[in-house]
């Protein structure tokens, strides 16, 4: 297996983490009798040899030894090594063909491994045959032979995936592979294999799917689950292993089968909703739990009438299994107002289980429990009594204030308690920002003008850029402006004109005094010399000045030509509000709308303000309302606010159509 390994100058070779001198040790460890040693070596090689698709000289040097290892039946865990070879030999991100050529040179080994005694090896080999064996007719023959002979479910589920890969890789030979998939998706084959074939057929040949796809898939799922439950039932129901199995969801293969089908259906949202209906109403709690997480993916990514799905999520809150209930709660908490159809079930759970009102993490911080958070975020006033009880206690959850922002007038009676807690926060403490941010948000949402003295106390917090104290200052300014209390805060705001909060402070001073001679020089300085966030905020504040900000027009026009859409849009909005000329503004909006989905809400609001002048872009709002996918679904870092932001954008677009 290792002939010639010591003749390689490994120290001169490189991998993702530097010198490859550790490679001989890892290669030998792959053949070790010690399970932990083998796993450590395989993990190390995954990270070092083919990280993010890059090819290294050590990668090429290792391939012959890896091929030699998988050819020896006495080597344990060869399935993982075959998977590593598949990862190495797949197309590299930088177009370097050497790794693929190196694996293809030894591809005959995969022909022998297709019938290996180890099911894990046979499973991994299915895709390796398609990737590396050069003759498509031979590959298809081997896959057909394996389908006829295979008895292990784990391998059988991998074969439809290999056939779908074959269709994509060899389109000229696709018909025969599609016929095989269609054959496997029909009786007399087992429910699991039929589901696997249906999912892959949906990916590569949707025209071959049965007309009754969703009822068929649901029926097969339940048949498979019933068979799995009988075949895996613990011998001793009261044993420790039995109890652990009952408490923990499993069946990752079943999850993957349905996830593949959901992925293939894509924008066929009605079919996916119907499929989820079958998953969430089935008798198997594991299937329902997988359905909960697949519902989360659909709700995050696609627009539709999701009321029925949300109600089914609410129905899981009464499940005996804690993991199923917790999964449903986690998804409902992401939905905000869209969770309203499940509010009755949330309310029942909240008041039946006061022990779930709070959650204490590993570091000991107390936060709002998932069921109560989800109920409050949905806007349901029935959350208020529980929140009031927690506010009156000695240690209210630190994030409770954020929940109050969704409850509107129903939460106003809690304003005195929020104010009291805000006044107890020390202005200069390591915990100030963490404690103050939720309460300041609540004060602003509740419109509690009596809290202005407590808010002003926190304006004295100081710190360098990015510090917690610095964050508090920005939130304090926002809260004061929301409360309309800036006239009482003029001295504090003036003191902030020389800090990184200058743009926010200048905007608040404009609200208080309408004195352009005071704020315009500050905003111009921030527009031209500030950091990116400061420039964007300065442009927004200049737009609020209207015609009084004409001095800033040249700088705003330059900013409107920035290569960053998130800078161009606030500059263009300000140009309109100051100069009321649509000609330089509309092209910026049109380009930014397509380039950066995060700019769509401010653009839509400005289009509404422009009225008839925005008519050339009215189609953007109409097209957005007709689009099936949420605008932030694939924007990194937007998951937590993606759904409420999308709901807000749709409201803004309706306003555009009604106004323009």
Description of the structure:
Mean pLDDT is 91; it is low at 230-248 and 463-467. With 660 residues, this protein is mainly α. Strand 3 (358-360) and strand 4 (366-368) form a beta hairpin. The chain is globular, with a radius of gyration of 30 Å. Helix 15 runs parallel beside helix 17 (307-315) and helix 31 runs antiparallel to helix 32 (565-579). It has helices at 23-29, 35-49, 57-70, 78-89, 98-104, 108-113, 119-132, 136-149, 153-169, 174-184, 191-204, 213-231, 240-247, 252-265, 269-280, 285-301, 307-315, 322-335, 343-352, 370-377, 384-392, 400-404, 415-423, 432-446, 452-458, 468-483, 490-495, 502-513, 516-529, 532-545, 553-559, 565-579, 586-595, 600-610, 618-626, 642-659, and strands at 14-15, 18-19, 358-360, 366-368. Strands 1-2 form a two-stranded antiparallel ribbon. A two-stranded antiparallel ribbon has the order 3-4. It contains 36 helices and four strands.
Write the layout of secondary structure elements.
Layout lengths: L13 E2 L2 E2 L3 H7 L5 H15 L7 H14 L7 H12 L8 H7 L3 H6 L5 H14 L3 H14 L3 H17 L4 H11 L6 H14 L8 H19 L8 H8 L4 H14 L3 H12 L4 H17 L5 H9 L6 H14 L7 H10 L5 E3 L5 E3 L1 H8 L6 H9 L7 H5 L10 H9 L8 H15 L5 H7 L9 H16 L6 H6 L6 H12 L2 H14 L2 H14 L7 H7 L5 H15 L6 H10 L4 H11 L7 H9 L15 H18 L1
Antiparallel strand pairs: 1-2, 3-4
Helix pairs in contact: 1-2, 2-4, 3-4, 3-5, 4-5, 4-7, 7-9, 8-9, 9-10, 9-11, 10-11, 11-12, 11-14, 12-15, 14-16, 15-16, 15-17, 16-18, 18-20, 19-20, 23-24, 23-25, 24-26, 25-26, 26-28, 28-29, 28-30, 29-30, 30-32, 31-32, 32-33, 32-34, 34-36, 35-36
């Amino acid at each position: 297996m290792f002939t010639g390994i010591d003749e390689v100058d490994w120290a001169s070779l490189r991998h993702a983490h530097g010198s490859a001198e550790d490679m001989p040790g890892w290669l030998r460890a792959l053949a070790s009798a010690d399970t932990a040693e083998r796993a450590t070596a395989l993990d190390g090689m995954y990270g070092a040899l083919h990280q993010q698709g890059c090819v290294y000289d050590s990668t090429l040097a290792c391939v012959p030894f890896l091929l030699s290892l998988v050819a020896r039946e006495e080597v344990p865990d060869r399935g993982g090594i075959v998977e590593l070879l598949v990862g190495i030999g797949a197309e590299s991100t930088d177009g370097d063909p050497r790794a693929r050529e190196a694996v293809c040179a030894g591809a005959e080994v995969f022909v022998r491994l297709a019938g290996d005694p180890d099911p894990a090896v046979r499973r991994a080999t299915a895709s390796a045959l398609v990737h590396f064996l050069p003759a498509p007719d031979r590959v298809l023959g081997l896959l057909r032979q394996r389908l006829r002979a295979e008895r292990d479910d784990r391998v059988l589920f991998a074969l439809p995936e290999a056939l779908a890969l074959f269709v994509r890789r060899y389109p000229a030979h696709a018909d025969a592979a599609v016929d095989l998939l269609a054959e496997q998706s029909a009786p007399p084959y087992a429910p699991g294999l039929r589901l696997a074939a249906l999912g892959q057929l949906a990916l590569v040949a949707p025209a071959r799917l049965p007309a009754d796809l969703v009822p068929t898939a649901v029926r097969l799922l339940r048949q498979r689950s019933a068979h799995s439950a009988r075949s895996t039932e613990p011998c001793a129901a009261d044993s420790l292993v039995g109890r652990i199995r009952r408490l923990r969801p499993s069946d990752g293969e079943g999850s993957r089968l349905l996830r593949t089908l959901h992925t293939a259906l894509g924008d066929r949202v009605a079919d996916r909703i119907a499929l989820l209906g079958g998953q969430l109403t089935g008798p198997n709690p594991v299937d329902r739990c997988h359905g909960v997480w697949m519902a989360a993916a659909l709700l995050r990514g696609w627009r539709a009438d999701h009321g029925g799905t949300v109600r089914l999520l609410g129905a899981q809150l009464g499940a005996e299994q804690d993991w199923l209930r917790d999964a449903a709660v986690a998804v409902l908490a992401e939905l905000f107002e869209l969770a309203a159809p499940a509010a009755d079930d949330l309310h029942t759970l909240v008041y039946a289980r006061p022990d779930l009102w709070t959650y204490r993490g590993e570091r000991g911080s107390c936060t709002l429990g998932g069921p109560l958070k989800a109920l409050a975020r949905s806007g349901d006033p029935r959350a208020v009594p529980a929140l009031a009880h927690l506010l009156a206690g000695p240690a209210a959850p630190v994030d409770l204030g954020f929940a109050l922002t969704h409850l509107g007038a129903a939460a106003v009676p809690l304003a005195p308690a929020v104010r009291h807690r805000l006044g107890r926060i020390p202005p200069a403490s390591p915990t100030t920002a963490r404690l103050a941010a939720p309460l300041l948000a609540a004060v602003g949402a509740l419109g509690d003008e009596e809290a202005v003295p407590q808010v002003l106390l926190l304006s004295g917090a100081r710190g360098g850029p990015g510090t917690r104290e610095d964050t508090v200052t920005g939130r304090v300014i926002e809260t004061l402006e929301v409360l309309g209390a800036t006239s009482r805060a003029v001295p504090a705001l003036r003191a902030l004109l020389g800090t990184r909060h200058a743009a926010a402070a200048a905007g608040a001073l404009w609200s208080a005094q309408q004195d352009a001679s005071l704020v315009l020089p500050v905003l111009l300085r921030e527009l031209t010399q500030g950091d990116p966030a400061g420039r964007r905020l300065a442009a927004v504040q200049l737009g609020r000045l209207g015609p009084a900000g004409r001095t800033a027009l040249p700088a705003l026009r330059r900013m409107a030509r920035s290569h960053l859409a998130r800078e161009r849009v606030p500059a263009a909005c300000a140009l309109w509000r100051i100069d009321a000329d649509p000609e330089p503004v509309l092209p910026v909006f049109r380009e930014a709308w397509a380039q950066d989905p995060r700019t769509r809400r401010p653009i839509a609001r400005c289009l509404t303000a422009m009225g008839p002048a925005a008519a050339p872009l009215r189609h953007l709002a109409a097209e957005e309302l007709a689009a099936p996918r949420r605008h932030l679904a694939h924007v990194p870092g937007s998951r937590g606010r993606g759904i409420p932001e999308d709901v807000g954008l749709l409201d803004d677009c309706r306003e555009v159509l009604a106004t323009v």
